[in-house]
Specification:
143 residues; alpha+beta; globular; Aminopeptidase; 5 strands
């Protein structure tokens, strides 16, 4: 798998992958999420490509205190081949190069397979509660 930085021409394929992986929820417009990300630390938005097709994504961030991981996706047809591990290793390296001492991420408690995956990468439960507040309502995404 070749890992490269996201480019605008990837948008449709990335969004399709996110829907396939059930990462898109009604309160998030994936196109707006992409538009916001490319304005901040664009080099932390990575895609994994095999034979010209996007099979993995990850959106990393660093705000000066903690790093963050969002939209890690691996096409179900390509799982269990180490692609999630590879793309995570690359985004972690890039976040660390910015001076980040720790990465956080949020996972739904019911997503046991993903929790197991992240634990296999060395992540652990910080025993915190994730809270969120939407500051703007988004238009639903329409294909």
């Amino acid at each position: 798998m070749e890992i490269s930085e996201y480019q605008e021409e990837h948008a449709g394929e990335v969004i399709e992958l996110w829907f396939k992986c059930r990462l898109v929820v009604p309160s998030n417009n994936p196109l707006r999420d992409i538009e916001r990300k490319v304005e901040v630390d664009r080099n932390l938005f990575l895609v994994g490509i095999i034979n010209g097709k996007i099979v993995a994504t990850v959106m990393g961030g660093y705000e000066g205190h903690r790093g963050w991981i969002n939209y890690l996706a691996v096409d179900p047809e390509h799982r269990n081949n180490g692609y999630g591990r590879l793309i995570m290793r690359e985004v972690e390296k890039r976040i660390q190069a910015k001076g980040c001492p720790k990465i956080n991420l949020q996972i739904r408690e019911s997503n046991e397979a993903v929790i197991k995956f992240y634990k296999s990468l060395g992540y652990s439960d910080d025993s915190v509660i994730g809270l969120g507040k939407r500051l703007e309502e988004e238009e639903p995404y329409r294909t």
